[in-house]
Write a structure and sequence with these properties.
It contains five helices and six strands. The chain has 159 residues and is of the alpha+beta class.
Length: 159
């Protein structure tokens, strides 16, 4: 797959699962994400030019016009840095209702925001299996994987 078609590839793979595209359970889309992360991109090369990032966060800010109500967040990003150019990325964001079990997986950096896991892996290589295993053993992932998120978004940015 080429870098510019990576988003189309992901969307196509997710559509084939039959999962509700707006709120799929992480457990139902995780095999697709793993397959997508393992698929090499032909127009990037070099170490750290195609990376996967799994991260979690917690927001306790009250709901407003521009802010969701308190929530736990999982972000899975494929980040491309072709030929030392500007970084581009595709982020799958899953937002979950706030609860104490998910909140216990993060470290608060202030009264309204906390950060949890951050796991990097080299996409499109055999190393991605190590990244997948590390993500699967993370506490927030283990709790969230069987829950239905409040929302899921997929965004492309950079370049």
């Amino acid at each position: 797959m080429e870098m510019h078609s990576a988003l189309d590839c992901l969307n196509s793979m997710l559509a084939r699962t039959g999962a509700d595209a707006s709120t799929p359970a992480l457990d139902s889309i995780w095999p697709v994400i793993q397959q997508w992360a393992a698929t090499p991109v032909t127009d990037v090369s070099g170490h750290d030019s195609d990376l996967m990032l799994y991260e979690t966060a917690l927001s306790l800010k009250p709901a407003s016009r521009h802010q969701s109500p308190p929530h736990f967040w999982i972000g899975i990003t494929r980040q491309f840095a072709p030929n030392d150019e500007e970084v581009e990325g595709i982020c799958i964001a899953l937002e979950y209702e706030h609860d104490e079990q998910l909140a216990a997986t993060v470290t608060m950096s202030g009264p309204e925001h906390g950060f949890g896991a951050q796991t990097w892996g080299q996409a499109g290589t055999d190393e991605i299996h190590r990244w997948s295993s590390a993500v699967e053993t993370e506490r927030g992932f283990a709790i969230a994987r069987h829950r239905i998120p409040r929302s899921m978004t997929i965004e492309y940015g950079g370049g």
